[in-house]
């Protein structure tokens, strides 16, 4: 099939590359000329394991190309994916400006029957607005070209994006036309060879499914974080509790890892947007509001632990920070817990030496230049260099090389053998035996005063 994917971010580029890998001819379009120029030269805008290989392979095979011209791409294909951003407005609702811009562009240039597939995460009812925007442009041109609008939300995770796209748990298609349903079934058939995982439903149900999935996952995280905070007060190790509840198949082990809060470009934004959707129809989403509030407090937790140890004034202290990205496997720092922590530490007068295996460039883009200039924040070249002379290590992102570090070497490099672990990577007892004071999330080897 000939496909056009509009937007070459995490979702658009992975979608385009994976469909090309399955033998389709794909044009990826973006308004960002630099991004497209770089892609044409083989430079990817994001770090995503495995992506570079399939992009370059499919470009060489001439199944994948990049363009800034939607008009040219439209002429060649008949299925168009919209995969542009839907960032939050100041009131938390999803900003649909980019989605509707693309819809209007499609209406301006459409010349034959087409299926417009919305992959961006959008509030219930957006497909209808996309349909109206396209129809208005066609009407302005005085032409009557049939088209269908389909909702096909994306569930990939950053850091595993290619694997998730290639082996999806399910593919949701919201659709109310037989022609579009048959085309979508055909398009995804290559991903379903083992067993059918294509779920058809109404367009509105598909839009809602995306928000409900992200809100459910965020709820699991905020729930376990609440339990972890309670464990801390009751002198219970939350890791035992996590294993204890995860072994119940009705609960499961996934997404119940306690930590210093969820970040990224999606959970924070999508929880806000679903809350806003509820508010807009006069419904009070008590659970979702609590999920968001818990997460905001959770992002402050590591700083709280540090203040409890050293007091409010951190002048003269320097901390080593491992991990800047919002999760391992990505260079994305959007809404990362590291940013909240850095803001608090630097405002309290501390200096930080941070190390992240891939997010160095993202750090310069996301964080104030003044921090680097003043020396408040220094980026180290490796994880051990960051520790030299630091008062303590703070772990924020659980990159694999941080999981089994050389504790003996760490003990020699740090000023004090002290670890604050925002992702519960280490065993408090073992660290205690190695001479470290250790505070995780809902676990520690320091006895609280009675
Ligand atoms: N990042 C992720 O892991 C996931 C994101 N999503 C959703 O997918 C959507 C896209 O997210 P990302 O890929 O992260 O966004 P992104 O911000 O990485 O990329 C969006 C791209 O769209 C381009 N763009 C904007 N307006 C355009 C236009 N009129 N024509 C052509 N290109 C245009 C931008 O230049 C940018 O390159 C969002 O709704 C997001 O919630 C869904 C699942 C996973
Ligand atoms: O809509 C989206 O954009 C995507 O959002 C999430 O994917 P992503 O944000 O890339 O990453 P996750 O692995 O879900 O992690 C999100 C955050 O939750 C945190 N997390 C995750 C799991 C857990 O048990 N505990 C926890 O604190 C991570 O550290 C990270 O900060 C969803 O997992 C994807 O299914 C969805 O498509």
UniProtKB/TrEMBL annotation:
<keyword id="KW-0520">NAD</keyword>
<feature type="binding site">
    <location>
        <position position="35"/>
    </location>
    <ligand>
        <name>NAD(+)</name>
    </ligand>
</feature>
<comment type="pathway">
    <text>Nucleotide-sugar biosynthesis; UDP-alpha-D-glucuronate biosynthesis; UDP-alpha-D-glucuronate from UDP-alpha-D-glucose: step 1/1.</text>
</comment>
<dbReference type="GO" id="GO:0051287">
    <property type="term" value="F:NAD binding"/>
</dbReference>
<feature type="binding site">
    <location>
        <position position="263"/>
    </location>
    <ligand>
        <name>substrate</name>
    </ligand>
</feature>
<dbReference type="InterPro" id="IPR001732">
    <property type="entry name" value="UDP-Glc/GDP-Man_DH_N"/>
</dbReference>
<dbReference type="Pfam" id="PF00984">
    <property type="entry name" value="UDPG_MGDP_dh"/>
</dbReference>
<dbReference type="GO" id="GO:0000271">
    <property type="term" value="P:polysaccharide biosynthetic process"/>
</dbReference>
<feature type="domain" description="UDP-glucose/GDP-mannose dehydrogenase C-terminal">
    <location>
        <begin position="320"/>
        <end position="428"/>
    </location>
</feature>
<feature type="active site" description="Nucleophile">
    <location>
        <position position="266"/>
    </location>
</feature>
<feature type="binding site">
    <location>
        <position position="210"/>
    </location>
    <ligand>
        <name>substrate</name>
    </ligand>
</feature>
<dbReference type="InterPro" id="IPR036291">
    <property type="entry name" value="NAD(P)-bd_dom_sf"/>
</dbReference>
<comment type="similarity">
    <text>Belongs to the UDP-glucose/GDP-mannose dehydrogenase family.</text>
</comment>
<keyword id="KW-0560">Oxidoreductase</keyword>
<dbReference type="GO" id="GO:0006065">
    <property type="term" value="P:UDP-glucuronate biosynthetic process"/>
</dbReference>
<feature type="binding site">
    <location>
        <position position="327"/>
    </location>
    <ligand>
        <name>substrate</name>
    </ligand>
</feature>
<feature type="binding site">
    <location>
        <begin position="255"/>
        <end position="259"/>
    </location>
    <ligand>
        <name>substrate</name>
    </ligand>
</feature>
<feature type="binding site">
    <location>
        <begin position="155"/>
        <end position="158"/>
    </location>
    <ligand>
        <name>substrate</name>
    </ligand>
</feature>
<protein>
    <recommendedName>
        <fullName>UDP-glucose 6-dehydrogenase</fullName>
        <ecNumber>1.1.1.22</ecNumber>
    </recommendedName>
</protein>
<feature type="binding site">
    <location>
        <position position="30"/>
    </location>
    <ligand>
        <name>NAD(+)</name>
    </ligand>
</feature>
<dbReference type="GO" id="GO:0003979">
    <property type="term" value="F:UDP-glucose 6-dehydrogenase activity"/>
</dbReference>
<dbReference type="InterPro" id="IPR014027">
    <property type="entry name" value="UDP-Glc/GDP-Man_DH_C"/>
</dbReference>
<feature type="binding site">
    <location>
        <position position="269"/>
    </location>
    <ligand>
        <name>NAD(+)</name>
    </ligand>
</feature>
<dbReference type="InterPro" id="IPR036220">
    <property type="entry name" value="UDP-Glc/GDP-Man_DH_C_sf"/>
</dbReference>
<feature type="binding site">
    <location>
        <position position="121"/>
    </location>
    <ligand>
        <name>NAD(+)</name>
    </ligand>
</feature>
<comment type="function">
    <text>Catalyzes the conversion of UDP-glucose into UDP-glucuronate, one of the precursors of teichuronic acid.</text>
</comment>
<dbReference type="Pfam" id="PF03721">
    <property type="entry name" value="UDPG_MGDP_dh_N"/>
</dbReference>
<dbReference type="Pfam" id="PF03720">
    <property type="entry name" value="UDPG_MGDP_dh_C"/>
</dbReference>
<dbReference type="InterPro" id="IPR017476">
    <property type="entry name" value="UDP-Glc/GDP-Man"/>
</dbReference>
<feature type="binding site">
    <location>
        <position position="334"/>
    </location>
    <ligand>
        <name>NAD(+)</name>
    </ligand>
</feature>
<feature type="binding site">
    <location>
        <position position="158"/>
    </location>
    <ligand>
        <name>NAD(+)</name>
    </ligand>
</feature>
<dbReference type="InterPro" id="IPR014026">
    <property type="entry name" value="UDP-Glc/GDP-Man_DH_dimer"/>
</dbReference>
<dbReference type="InterPro" id="IPR008927">
    <property type="entry name" value="6-PGluconate_DH-like_C_sf"/>
</dbReference>
<dbReference type="InterPro" id="IPR028357">
    <property type="entry name" value="UDPglc_DH_bac"/>
</dbReference>
<feature type="binding site">
    <location>
        <position position="86"/>
    </location>
    <ligand>
        <name>NAD(+)</name>
    </ligand>
</feature>
């Amino acid at each position: 099939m000939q496909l056009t994917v509009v937007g070459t971010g995490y979702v658009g580029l992975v979608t385009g590359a994976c469909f090309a890998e399955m033998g389709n001819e794909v044009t990826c379009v973006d308004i960002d000329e630099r991004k497209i120029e770089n892609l044409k030269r083989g430079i990817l805008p994001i770090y995503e394991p495995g992506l570079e290989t399939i992009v370059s392979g499919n470009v060489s095979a001439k199944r994948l190309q990049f363009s800034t011209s939607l008009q040219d791409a439209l002429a060649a294909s008949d299925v168009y994916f919209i995969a542009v951003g839907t960032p939050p407005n100041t009131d938390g609702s999803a900003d649909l400006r980019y989605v509707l811009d693309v819809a209007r562009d499609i209406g301006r240039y459409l010349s034959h029957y087409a299926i417009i597939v919305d992959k961006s995460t959008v509030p219930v009812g957006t497909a209808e607005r996309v349909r109206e925007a396209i129809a208005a442009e066609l009407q302005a041109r005085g032409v009557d070209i049939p088209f269908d609008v389909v909702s096909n939300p994306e569930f990939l995770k950053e850091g595993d994006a290619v694997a998730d796209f290639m082996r999806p748990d399910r593919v949701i298609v919201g659709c109310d036309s037989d022609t579009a349903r048959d085309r979508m079934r055909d398009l995804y058939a290559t991903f379903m060879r083992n067993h059918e995982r294509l779920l058809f439903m109404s367009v509105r149900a598909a839009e809602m499914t995306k928000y409900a999935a992200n809100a459910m996952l965020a709820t699991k995280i905020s729930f376990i974080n609440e339990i972890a905070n309670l464990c801390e007060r009751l002198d219970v190790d939350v890791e035992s509790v996590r294993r204890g509840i995860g072994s119940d198949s009705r609960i499961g082990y996934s997404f119940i890892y306690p930590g210093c809060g969820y970040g990224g470009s999606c959970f924070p934004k999508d929880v806000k947007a679903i809350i806003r959707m509820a508010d807009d129809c006069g419904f009070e989403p008590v659970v979702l509001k609590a999920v968001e509030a818990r997460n905001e407090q959770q992002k402050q937790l590591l700083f709280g632990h540090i203040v409890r140890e050293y007091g409010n004034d951190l002048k003269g202290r320097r901390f080593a920070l491992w991990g800047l990205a919002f999760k391992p496997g990505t260079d994305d720092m959007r809404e990362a817990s590291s940013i909240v922590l850095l803001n608090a530490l630097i405002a309290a007068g501390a200096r930080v030496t941070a190390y992240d295996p891939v997010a160095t460039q993202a750090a310069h883009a996301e964080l104030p230049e003044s921090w680097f200039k003043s020396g408040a924040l220094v980026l180290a070249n490796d994880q051990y260099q960051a520790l030299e002379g630091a008062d303590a290590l703070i772990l924020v992102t659980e990159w694999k090389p941080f999981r089994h570090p050389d504790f003996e070497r760490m003990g020699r490099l740090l000023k004090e053998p002290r670890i604050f672990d925002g992702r519960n990577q280490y065993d408090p007892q073992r660290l205690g035996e190695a001479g470290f004071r250790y505070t995780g999330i809902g676990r520690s080897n320091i006895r609280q005063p009675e």
